[in-house]
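Notebook B, p. 112. Complex prediction, attempt 2.
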Amino acid sequence: MKSIAIDTYSHLDSPLHRWDARAKLIGLFAIMLAFASIQQLVLLPLLLFLSGLAYWCSKLPWHFWRDRLRWPGRLLFLLALVLPFAGGGVEWLRLGPMAVYEDGVLALLQIATRAISILTVGLVLFGTTPFPTLISAARSLGLPAILADMVLLTYRYLFDLGSTLDTMQTALRLRGLRITRLKRSQIPVVAGLIGSLLVRSYDQSERIYSAMRLRGYGTVAQRQACLWPSRRHVWGTGMALAIAVSLLSAEWVWSVFPLV
Amino acid sequence: MHIPDGFLPVPVWVGGYAISGTALWLSLRQIDRLPNPQEGVPKASLLTAAFFVASWIHIPIPPVSVHLMLNGLMGVLLGPFAFPAIAIGLFFQAVLFQHGGLSTLGINAAVLGIPAMLASQLYRLRWRLSRRSQPSEQWGAEQWGPDLAAKQRWVTGAVAAVAGASGLLLSALVFCVLLIAVIPASVDVQAERIAIATLTVAHLPVAVVEGAMTAAIVLFLERVKPTLLQQL
């Protein structure tokens, strides 16, 4: 099974790798939400600049960003095929029977810039911190214990179950199963495959729960000590929050007093 | 049905987080009322991982290939853990595969999770229907005989199929209504509405497959591992 882990480069050394996980979670999440709120075209280059700067500071490799952008890139490409031609407003240019509309192009620019910028900051957040550390940070910031435990256990067994599914599918293929068009008679076969996967995971969960109980799960307080990070880390968060608030303020000012 | 980052206006994604936050709070409250809430955590987590992995199985329905959503089945098997499980599954989709997004996580969880909660309630009807089909002690045994088990299996399968299909259909409907609602005013609304209506209708055969698959999986589990069907 192809590795899909997001924290492959979390061992690198950069200011963003060294930033405390709790402080980073608050700061970068605030920036992502601020990016998602931007509508003014004049602010869009700033989004690209800020996200690019964060990625450059993180020292994450270029191909990591390119590979992760493959799927959203396809969606944006599809949107680019539709939106400029379906958008109303002023006609910009005519390509044979098709017209390219200003509003459609601008809407595409807005969506694509926001999507790429948020994705880039998200990659910086998840790519520079080991995933369990990030969930522990979220736990110490108030994520309910049940959710934190579920996220960590799901993450731990996702890859195991992925390999199990690969093996089961190979076994089915070796027995001659080829589904090119789903037939009624094949529904029980696919249902059996999914059902077996669920039964295996359920049996495994029983063993895991017994092991966790033996290690004291559910009997002692699970809450972790919440020590505040050093002033340096808090400064970073303060700066990120200031950027987020400035962007939102600029968005508001431009929507009330449009200069461009 | 994963809306990516950047597509939605602010009130929609903020509203999505508000709805999902409420649904999550209700689910966690329900979980806390269980006799041993922590007992369900490993089971729910492993099943979440299994559902996530099962969604990688592609089903060819020419001219396209679809993957199963299984949100109805998650409601059936996970009960109060269904909404948190879906939210976590979508979180992983966004983080590991960049399907969906982090700013749209709330709205995506609401679109898939609330129908799962409804499917969970729908599946509970099975017990009522099964009870109704149970013969009374005085006269039932000779009248129903071996047909009883077959009838109960039929009821189970039918309710599971409805839960599975309605889970997907409801999600598709909400998703399409949402898309129509956020179309910018300047865009050719008529053309876009036709496209979205076509998309909704295109989900009908997928809902039939999803319903049939849910019924087949539930009947498989009833035969192989009935304890899994006793909701967490």
